[in-house]
Amino acid sequence: MARTPSPKKRIEELRAQIRHHNEQYYGSDQPEISDAEFDILLRDLRDLEATHPELADSSSPTEAVGAAAVTTFDPVQHRVPMTSLDNAMDESELRAWGDRVSKGLGDQPVQYVCELKIDGLAISIRYENGVLVQAATRGDGKVGEDVTANVATISSLPKKISNAPEVVEVRGEIFMSIAAFQKLKAEREAENLVRIENGRAPLAVPVNPRNAGAGSLRQKDPSITAQRDMSLWSYQLGEVVGGPEFTSHHDTLEFLRTLGFPVNPEITIVDSIEAVMQFCHSWQERRHELPYEIDGAVVKVDSLAQREQLGFTSRAPRWAIAFKFPPEEKHTLLRDIQISVGRTGRVTPFAVLEPVFVGGSNVGMATLHNRDQVAAKDVRPGDTVVVRKAGDVIPEVVGPVLAKRPKNSTPWVFPTQCPCEVKSTLVKLDDVADTRCVEPMCPFQRDQRIIYFASRGGMDIEGLGERTVFALSDAGLVVDVGDLFSLTVEQLLTLEGFAELSAQNLVASIQASRSKPLPKLLTALGIKHLGPAASDSLSSHFGTLDAIASASAEELAAVDGVGGVIAASINAWFAVPANALIVSKLRDAGVEFGRVVVSTLPQTLVGKAVVVTGTLANFSREGAEEAIKARGGKSPGSVSAKTFAVVLGESPGASKVTKAEQLQIPVLNESQFEVLLETGELPN
Ligand code: IVH
To answer: How far is ligand 1, taken at its centre, from the CA of residue 144, in Å?
Structure first.
């Protein structure tokens, strides 16, 4: 018989899982599960904590959910709190809510207002004597941020209203239409081509309309928001002084409409949960017909007297519920399972799918992670499979549709040989999930190593991307990174896609990279386990590549942030004859082996971690990070409780902003960042 864990154990498990997924989502921007699955974990934990108050813990993730306002915009105290809504994840939860409403109202008849749940940002816009005076985000529901100047740029929003009450707060959702998002994305991509051509860092490209909308609303310069074509649906009133008396929600919507505010036309009033269900299911099917994104439906009791009777829980009103659409799933043909080989030889299986439109985009490929995952799912080429995508989460193959499995189908067998021409044996050790190609001369690994060498974190060679590396490798012009430096314009001209100017530019940027500082060169070599932070420490300690190559494992391991695993890996790398050959080719080409930039700047940031997100006007991303390091600080890629400050540029990563808000980490704009660099202090 299966044993169920004790509540204490289960609570601990859930807390650990939620912390892990929070870190994946906010910290590394690599969510492993959908928002819907996350919500389920969080709710299970909340339910268990409610039934076991003796197991309460103030550090539980349930206590931390809900973003507090950040300090970049002035705080605004909401006079009427902006509460959130409880969620119904499926039909039975929606019915259960309907039952609670009926019970709470002693079985009176109920009218429900069904609305679309707009996937945007909640806003409260205050008018005094008909004039827009303030717009604030929801924040933690009590205190939001003042984004008046940005909201005032929304063209469909009246700036002045006639016949208005003395005070009226209009609440609703600000969003970016799909068309506006696509326009912004296309403009960004075009602008990036020019920036790259001019040697400037590309700007972040927004991933979906909600993130683009959030980024636009957070602009310090409202003229940028004005170019973004944001929209609003209003759906609620906040504080009202001197206004008419209302008896129903639909009256308030009508009032908003007559004042000139946009009210969504798809709102429907029904008198049974059955009809509510129909509304929800119908929009679940038709959501992509809308020119903006929705992630569910919101159902509200219409009568204001009944709302009063039902009241609020500590979190949300009892008279409304958000029905969240489940992650979208589609069936498609699994054409094949193939494997890709990474720079360190790690082999990743992936699904080649008959392209299918799911979750707002076309999906033709999806990772299957590793051998165990394929075995656990037992998906086979020729199967019809379920593909899922929720929000901006990467597409996932959920599993096979067994009823449609072709007869005589057999389980997929993980290849025993690398698909490259060397056909080396693939190895899986018992205690690790990964399978590896252990042949260092495997051309697939080789190409990935060259791509890594040229990438931003390494030698940052402009114009040497994946496609060019494959072309160079196919033409036999490069075998390892040492060969890059002897490439000529004439050789490049033999490749498709190269003209005189682009060939000259690439040769010039390869040659220019020879004077990159030692930590960049060391990182670029792609030594297993050796990342930029340890490369920095090793470079400062040893000063030259030759000194690192000849150091013993003990000497290497003694350096701050290095340790035994990295030290052994470095020793092993330099001991491989093919790598020694690379080092000698680099030396012959005149690559600098000892360019350690010693900072003469005041060490204002020693021991402080400052995270940079978004595009800054006066610094490239690398420039900002180097400015931090040159003052003794660290610039990690993710926000954690140890982060001293987060610097926000244009189009910041939404997850980093949210995490900073959650952890209440100071958020700085560019000029405040400059003060921080100079003084090491947080500006007032
Ligand atoms: S009513 C007390 N109506 O969903 C009622 N919210 O999950 C407050 N949302 O914070 C909200 N569309 O940002 C309401 N038609 C709609 C909505 C809507 C989107 C958002 C809103 C809210 C969140 C709750």
So the answer is: 15
Burial 500-519 (b: 16+ CB within 10 A, else e): eebbebbbebbbebeebbbb
Nearest to 517, CA basis, from 376, 619, 626, 393: 626
Structure tokens at 3: 């044993």
Contacts of 600 (CB under 8 A, 6+ apart): none
| The CATH number of the domain covering residues in 329-406+416-428 | 2.40.50.140
Listed residue (670, 599, 654) closest to 631, CA to CA: 599
**Residue of the CA atom closest to atom 4 of ligand 1:** 117
**Overall CATH class of domain 609-679:** alpha beta
Cα torsion 177, 263, 657, 645: sign:
positive
SS3 state at 384: strand
Residue 380: both structure tokens together = 């086979």
Domain-by-domain residue ranges, the chain? 7-63, 76-324, 329-406+416-428, 443-588, 609-679
**Closest alpha carbon to 497 in 526, 470, 461:** 470
Do 513 and 538 meet the contact criterion of CB atoms below 8 Å apart? no
Active site members = 117
Closest CA to 488 of 508, 466, 458, 513: 508
Distance CA 172, CA 336 (A): 46
Distance CA 406, CA 383 (A): 7
Amino acid letter, 141: G
Report the candidate in 586, 597, 478, 583 with the shortest Cα–Cα distance to residue 535: 597
Give the homologous superfamily in CATH for domain 443-588. Answer: 5' to 3' exonuclease, C-terminal subdomain (1.10.150.20)
Q: Which of 256, 298, 307, 314 to mutate to test the pocket of ligand 1 (most atoms within 8 A of CB)?
A: 298
Separation CA 616–CA 409 (nearest Å): 55
Question: Which residue, by CA, sits nearest to atom 9 of ligand 1?
Answer: 117
Q: What is the pLDDT of residues 554-601, one digit of tens each?
A: 999 999 889 899 999 999 999 999 999 999 999 999 999 998 777 788
Distance 238 CA to ligand 1 centre (A): 13
Of how many residues is the chain composed? 684
Q: What CATH superfamily classification does 76-324 receive?
A: DNA ligase/mRNA capping enzyme (3.30.470.30)
118 CB under 6 A from ligand 1?
yes
Q: What's the 322 CA to ligand 1 centre distance in angstroms?
A: 8
- Return the CATH number of the domain spanning residue range 7-63: 1.10.287.610
Ligand 1 in reach of 294 Cβ (< 6 A): no
pLDDT on residue 230: 95
d(C-alpha 412, C-alpha 414), whole Å? 6
- Residue 236 Cβ inside 6 Å of ligand 1? The answer reads yes
105 vs 221: CA distance, rounded Å: 49
d(CA 307, CA 318) in angstroms, rounded, equals 8
Q: Pairing relation of β-strands 230-241 and 121-128?
A: unpaired
Can you list the residues of the chain whose pLDDT is less than 70? 1-4, 22-37, 39, 58-59, 62-72, 195-202, 207, 390-393
**Concatenated DSSP letters of 501-523:** HHHHHHHHHHHHGGG--HHHHHH
What angle, 0 to 180 degrees and rounded to 10, lies between the N-to-C axes of helices 91-104 and 273-286? 150
pLDDT at 3: 55
Burial profile 297-326: b = 16 or more Cβ within 10 angstroms, e = fewer: bbbbbbbbebbebbeeeeebbbbbbbbbbe
CA dihedral 380, 383, 386, 387 (to 10 degrees): 70
Question: How many Cβ atoms sit within 10 Å of the Cβ of residue 679?
Answer: 12
Provide the CA 574 distance to its chain's centre, in angstroms: 37
Evaluate whether 477 touches 483 at the Cβ level (below 8 Å): yes
